[in-house]
């Protein structure tokens, strides 16, 4: 089923909230791998998630055009 | 030894790219847009190298020293999100450019709105606010060259040498050579920065040990908000949003949307562009954080020097020379792109439309080359006496350019744009920008957000009042 623009607006809005969690969560300053802070890995995961979303959004946007 | 590395490195990087440049047969399409023929990887690296400049090498390391790892997230995530706006705006810019033969951003604005005043204002704002960013590359190059030669070359002389070298290179090469250099530079910067982190980390007892030491010295460098809560939630929001909006509006980047061979190449480049900062942004920031171990207590513009200081202290002389020469070449690869973009815009947006005589292609390219020289010299004079730190010069420049985003979005995606609204939006936002910068308006008017958020909101609201979907 072809997704509607509102679907992608909602997805990216949720994603924007994921990038803003520092407003509601204090991750503290604990460190782990390579002595880097734990919260840095959360944001790295968010970054990778964005690239995946962008890939599918790109497919959606240009499939629409071809149809 | 250092001079040999400088000459060999710059000779291979820049000289090699000039091979095959046809100075006499150039047409505007070939000189300014590399014949719209770049494939995915070349396009990706040229976008990357154009965007990662002195601001990346010196500015990121400086902010890593000043703020900590929070700066990495802001820059990597913010830059990644710009991949989305590149797909949304860039793809339409490419399509419209291909259909109508647009070369400059302003030609697209004029072609789609029919308003010459709006097109000229759009171009003028891009040019004026890119100049500090252009000068910033010369400043960065000057700092590094002076440092690299232990002061044998004074800052002023370094600035002059770099400017002259870049002028000659851009005049001969045009976009094809610039893009070739960018590709090499993109790869070299990534490889050498990674090696730099490994070598400095090793000298400090290993990457983990270095981070633990830095955390003991200044724990706040490891906090999610940075030192002194620099990135408060509102600041955090401001900066994440800012890069999404500012990056596609840099003229040297906007014009790269035209040069893709096809749409698929541009879309693939945008996705790679979104992924790359995850790896490359942490490298200078980490070196900046470690700077507290070796050079505690730096202040003001001294902080911008943390990268060369760390390289010289913790790596061999030859390696430090290679990586710093790489940094100089990176600055130049941004500078050459900016010079080419601005000279194209000056020539085609302000000279050609108002010239009483018919201007042939050869003359147009010749005028473009003359303007390259004039702009570079202008940037050099700003660099002699930089008005702010590297980061703050960049911030001023990017804020002015970000104002144009709503107009760029409206013109490429909504078609029917009432030019008067866009003109008012740009002028009002610029007045607000200067009012905040010079303190005529209190920062409290921005409600805790960065002032540029207010400018962007104003520009968006006014522009979109005048937009109709076709």
Short description:
Chain A is built from 2 helices and no strands.
Count of β-strands of chain A: 0
Number of domains of chain B: 1
Q: What letter string, H or E per element, gives the SSE order of chain A?
A: HH
> How many DSSP H or I helices of chain B?
21
CATH class of chain B: Mainly Alpha
Under CATH, the topology of chain B can be stated as Sodium/glucose cotransporter
Q: End-to-end span of chain A in angstroms?
A: 13 Å
- Bin the strand percentage of chain B: under 5%
Catalogue the unreliable spans of chain A: none
Structural class, from secondary structure content of chain A? mainly alpha
Strand content of chain A: under 5%
Structural class of chain B: mainly alpha
Look at the structure and give the mean pLDDT of chain B. Answer: 85
What percentage of residues of chain B falls in helices of 4 or more residues? over 70%
Strand tally of chain B: 2
Residue windows where pLDDT falls under 50 for at least 5 positions of chain B: none
Largest chain-chain contact? A-B, 28 and 37 residues
* Rough outline of chain A: elongated
Count of alpha/pi helices of chain A = 2
What's the helical proportion of residues of chain A?
55-70%
Spatial extent as radius of gyration of chain B: 21 Å
Write the layout of secondary structure elements.
The complex is a heterodimer of chains A (67) and B (470).
Chain A: H1 5-19, H2 38-66
Helix pairs in contact in A: 1-2
Chain B: H1 2-18, H2 28-33, H3 40-51, H4 54-66, H5 70-100, H6 105-113, H7 116-148, H8 155-203, H9 207-217, H10 233-246, H11 251-254, H12 263-275, H13 277-280, H14 282-294, H15 306-314, H16 317-351, H17 361-384, H18 390-402, H19 405-413, E1 415-417, H20 419-437, H21 451-465, E2 467-469
Antiparallel strand pairs in B: 1-2
Would you write up a description of this structure?
The complex is a heterodimer of chains A (67) and B (470). Chain A has 67 residues and is mostly helical. Chain A has one domain (5-66). Helices cover 66% and strands 0% of the residues of chain A. Chain A is built from 2 helices and no strands. Chain A starts with a helix and ends with a helix. In chain B, strands 1-2 form a two-stranded antiparallel sheet. Chain B has one domain (2-403): Sodium/glucose cotransporter (Up-down Bundle), CATH 1.20.1730.10. The A-B interface holds A 12, 19-20, 22-23, 26-27, 29, 31, 34-37, 39-40, 43-44, 46-48, 50-51, 54-55, 57-58, 61-62 and B 69, 72-73, 76-77, 80-81, 83-84, 87-88, 91, 207-212, 215, 219, 222-225, 231, 233, 236-237, 240, 263, 267, 270-271, 274-275, 277-278.
